[in-house]
Amino acid sequence: MYVPIMKNLAQEIKVTKDLNQHFGESIMPLFELITEKYNDRFKIDPKTGDPVKTLKPGNKIKTKVKLPNKPEDIKTLDEIVTNLQGKRAFIDFFRHQPNEYKNVKVSDVQLSFSLSRDYSYYRDRMLEIKDYENLIPTISIKDGFKMSITDLNSFITELKKNNSCIALRITDNYLEDYIEEIAKLSHHDFIMLDIREQNAEAKFIELQEFQEIETNAKKILLNSPRPRKKYNSEFNNLEFTRIIDNIVATEYRQYKLNGFGDFGGLKDRLPSPGGGNNGSALALIFLKDKNKFFSIVNEDKTLGVTGYPYVVQEVLNNVSLLDKTNTCPIIKAIRDNAKKGSFGGWPSWIYYTLARYIHQQATK
Predict the structure, then answer these.
(1) 303 in a domain, yes or no?
(2) In this structure, are residues 155 and 147 in contact, taking their beta carbons and an 8 Å threshold?
(3) Alpha carbon distances (Å) from 26 to 39, 214, 294, 362
(4) Is the pTM above the cut of 0.90?
(5) 349 located within any domain
(6) Closest by alpha carbon to 302, among 331, 329, 334, 280?
């Protein structure tokens, strides 16, 4: 089983929609919910029943007046369910410590901030998952969010009243503290060991312990192999990069685990305010048969996103390596968009990287 870990941001949601056909029991996404999604409501003219429009400063066209969001407008889980089209997924109402991530755009992670500060609110939101039979509540235990045994057992019991299964996601430093609780999980459940950016070979003791735990739950090994602190400019051009060590994608079998999960070539990071146009244009194209990413980088980082025409040209120059069978829909999309003069920006290449990775993992 492969578990792609995704934030509920625009490009990840688009990937979910576009690659839905590949999801199932062998590929089951894990969504880290960091931002609240709402159905828009607009001010209505009581006389005509039409939306009220206004001319904002600097605009030439009037736009509808949006009303403030209300709790009843929330569609966070509904949006995911709609795009899953009946497929199953893990749901982690994502919490993080104040200094765990740097340079965060607060407006894009208000949900995560609220969940992190208020356990009761976190618990209530997790219990909402009961209304969606194809969503699996995922309890995450890590630094700053450790649970007492009593609280964990109580929470699992409450979740199982209305959910057919649950998942327990634990960082390796807390694994030993919860062995007895892991042993109680049923064959419907999942236990996820998260080693984050740590190398699997360096964690062999913890992996052996994980293998030896007696439980009926399915065992999944999660990791984040692309280092957060590495800039695009640090990747070498036109080579299989050593910066991303994707060993977990194969090593999990050595420990007789049921699956693995990662961020699909993306960094485990929260949205940032953005650094302007500067930065090296980078493509990371995954090849499953090599279990490596081929990196293409425009070494002139002053170009920013305007450096992507070069990157796209090199993708197309290396099609015989990157798409031998001419069946990759992501390479096709890159080619088709280039014909229209569109070479993509930062969001586009987030989409391409993740979509390509999932598509490759779906191949036999």
Answers:
(1) no
(2) yes
(3) 32, 23, 25, 8
(4) yes
(5) no
(6) 280
Q: Which of 185, 177, 244 is nearest to 220 (CA)?
A: 185
Q: How many residues does the chain have?
A: 364
DSSP secondary-structure letter at 68? P
For the chain, what is the domain count? 1
Question: Domain holding 104: CATH number?
Answer: 3.20.20
Tally the C-alpha atoms within 13 A of residue 287's C-alpha that lie toward its C-beta.
17
For 352, the token pair is 């391409």
With contact defined as beta carbons under 8 Å apart, do 168 and 178 qualify?
yes
Q: What is the DSSP letter of 22?
A: G
At CA 89, angle to CA 86 and CA 92, rounded to 5? Answer: 140
Angle in degrees, 0-180, between the axes of helices 119-127 and 110-117, rounded to the nearest 10? 110
Written as tens digits, the pLDDT of the chain (364 aa) is: 999 999 999 999 999 999 999 999 999 999 999 999 999 999 998 989 899 999 888 888 889 999 999 999 999 999 999 999 999 999 999 999 999 999 899 899 999 999 999 999 999 999 999 999 999 999 999 999 999 999 999 999 999 999 999 999 999 999 999 999 999 999 999 999 999 999 999 999 999 999 999 999 999 999 999 999 999 999 999 999 999 999 999 999 999 999 999 999 999 999 988 756 779 999 999 999 999 999 999 999 999 999 999 999 999 999 999 999 999 999 999 999 999 999 999 999 999 999 999 999 999 7
Residue 50: CA atoms inside 13 Å, Cβ hemisphere, count? Answer: 5
Q: Cα–Cα distance between 221 and 204 in angstroms, integer?
A: 12
What is the chain's alpha carbon radius of gyration, rounded to the nearest angstrom?
22
Angstrom distance (rounded) from CA 298 to CA 277: 14
Q: Is residue 44 part of a domain?
A: no
Range of the domain at 210: 2-39+65-276
Query: Considering the domain boundaries, does residue 345 fall inside one?
Result: no
String of DSSP letters for 103-170: S--GGG-HHHHHHHH-HHHHHHHHHGGGG-TTEEEEEEE-TT----HHHHHHHHHHHHTT-S--EEEE
